[in-house]
Specification:
The chain is α+β, with helices and mostly antiparallel strands. The chain has helices at about 1-5, 25-30, 35-45, 60-75, 80-100, 120-130, 140-170; strands at about 20-25, 50, 55-60, 110, 115-120, 135-140. Helix 4 (about 60-75) packs across helix 5, helix 4 (about 60-75) packs across helix 7 and helix 5 packs across helix 7 (about 140-170).
């Protein structure tokens, strides 16, 4: 869990202010990873969910991180190359979490596996790309956050839509 791993737990004054939580099945769908990948990453201490009884629960910041990690894996990064990026990534996600989840915030990870930069400004990204001597990968944390918030909105919309359809069938 990003919050516990970085010792950045947040107080939640009331139930309504609690962040959305995601079960493993939802995380797999959002991040396009297998349940076994999530389990392996937990075993390897890449990212561990919160345990609630027998349920594994992920917070939005965890899911954003999983999407980024999955993207890096798809680009050929090994877990050994990803591991040094985890702490800075956790820090940046926590620092900008509210803006990321509100949408429209553009934050990018630019890395070649040895060095990494988190950047908002397109002109700065171009300059950084020019300075890399090896191929680099650019991943949008903003897009990852939109996947999380989009899933939450679709889930809520679908639930109310299904409920409305069910009521119509009864009449």
């Amino acid at each position: 869990n990003f919050s516990s791993a970085g010792n950045m737990s947040r107080a939640h004054p009331d139930e309504n202010s609690r962040p959305q939580q995601f079960g493993s099945a939802h995380v797999c769908r959002i991040a396009r990873v297998s349940p076994r990948q999530l389990q392996w990453w937990d075993e390897q201490k890449i990212l561990s969910p919160v345990q609630q009884g027998h349920r594994r629960v992920y917070l939005p910041e965890d899911v954003i991180g999983i999407i980024v990690i999955a993207g890096l894996r798809r680009k050929g990064f090994t877990l050994e190359r990803i591991r040094p990026l985890l702490r800075p990534m956790r820090r940046e996600i926590q620092r900008h979490l509210e803006e990321l989840l509100n949408g429209g915030y553009r934050l990018y990870l630019l890395t070649d596996g040895r060095t990494s930069h988190f950047e908002e400004q397109p002109a700065r990204i171009i300059e950084l790309l020019k300075s890399f001597r090896t191929p680099a990968v650019l991943i949008s944390l903003g897009d990852a956050a939109e996947c999380v918030t989009g899933f939450h909105k679709r889930a809520k919309g679908t639930a109310s839509h299904d409920r409305d359809r069910t009521q119509l069938k009864l009449f």
